[in-house]
UniProtKB/TrEMBL annotation:
It comes from Cloeon dipterum. Belongs to the REXO1/REXO3 family. The keyword Ligase does not apply. Coiled coil: none annotated. This is Exonuclease domain-containing protein. SUPFAM superfamilies: Ribonuclease H-like.
């Protein structure tokens, strides 16, 4: 090992590398409630994660899920609960106070949404970097934006940046299943973005990614296992900023937004939805700083 190699990010990250199994195990502690919910869901019988209604997925003759009827729509708040300076709580969507009511939530939709356990287990769709021939001792940060299809959360955009913060890969991903919620407020992606493209199928994106990601490539991200799950991509040299920067309460995780501010003095996720390139660069920047190779982006 030459001293030049020892100064490389690839070398310095070695103590932080975890296998897929280790990252999954770490992540499970945060998701035990969610996992229990998912276990109660089946392919047909599900519980909506927006309105808690139990429902059955009804397909029409073309195999497309039927929308709900007008009297039984999914009713929910599209935003999240925020706090005013005086401690009062309100929904970011409609400014209503969650501690008063009852009143009808501000948003309705013609579909309920949920994950179900069979979804991520379509073995035939999962690809692995272990089967991708060649070597690439590079470090990449990866981030996906998610939308909701009838099958649950799926990747709709993926961005990969290298250690110099250059975007080395980015694509819109068109899920095979029907999209019922673009999650525009988080993903920044609208129906128009997806339709005007250019977008690729998940299979095409997996092929592209495996050109870049080899068995010896270091991949980093914030809850990187969620991104890899949505890409149906298996990889074992992972750096997860959730693990590297633990929350003082071991059953909570730091948000990337908070880490950016606390560790880097950067305000991120300010615009319309998340920017997957910004999130990926933030992870890269956090790890560069952690190992003494700080560089602004
Ligand atoms: Zn609302
Ligand atoms: Zn619902």
């Amino acid at each position: 090992m030459t001293s030049l190699q020892e100064e490389s990010l690839y070398f310095k990250l070695q103590p932080f590398i975890r296998s897929k199994k280790q990252v999954d195990e770490h992540s499970n502690r945060f998701d035990s409630k969610k996992n229990a919910e998912i276990a109660k869901n089946t392919e047909k019988d599900r519980k909506c994660e927006r309105c808690n209604t139990k429902y059955r997925v009804e397909m029409d003759s073309n195999g497309v899920p039927k929308p709900l009827d007008e009297n039984n729509l999914c009713k929910f708040h599209s935003g999240w609960i925020k706090y005013r300076i005086d401690g009062e709580r309100y929904y970011s969507c409609c400014k209503e106070d969650p501690d008063f009511g009852p009143y009808d939530p501000c948003t309705t939709d013609t579909y309920h949404i949920s994950e179900y356990p069979g979804f991520f287990n379509k073995e035939s769709e999962i690809v692995s970097s272990a089967t991708s021939s060649g070597s690439n001792k590079a470090v990449y940060a990866l981030d996906c934006e998610m939308c909701v299809t009838v099958n649950g959360y799926e990747c709709c955009r993926v961005t990969v940046v290298d250690e110099e913060y250059e975007v080395v890969y980015e694509s819109l991903v068109k899920p095979d299943d029907m999209i019922i919620d673009y999650k525009t407020q988080f993903s920044g992606i609208t129906k128009e973005t997806m339709e005007n493209g250019p977008s690729k199928s998940l299979k095409e994106v997996q092929d592209d990614l495996l050109e870049l990601i080899k068995e010896d490539t270091i991949l980093m991200g914030h809850s990187i296992n969620n991104d890899l799950k949505s890409l149906k991509l298996r990889h074992d040299m992972l750096v997860d900023t959730v693990i590297v920067f633990p929350h003082p309460n071991s059953y909570k995780r730091n948000s990337l937004r908070w880490l950016a501010e606390d560790e880097l003095g950067r305000i991120i996720q300010q615009g319309n939805g998340h920017d997957s390139a910004e999130d990926a660069r933030t992870c890269m920047s956090l790890m560069r700083k952690k190992v003494g190779l700080h560089k602004d982006f």
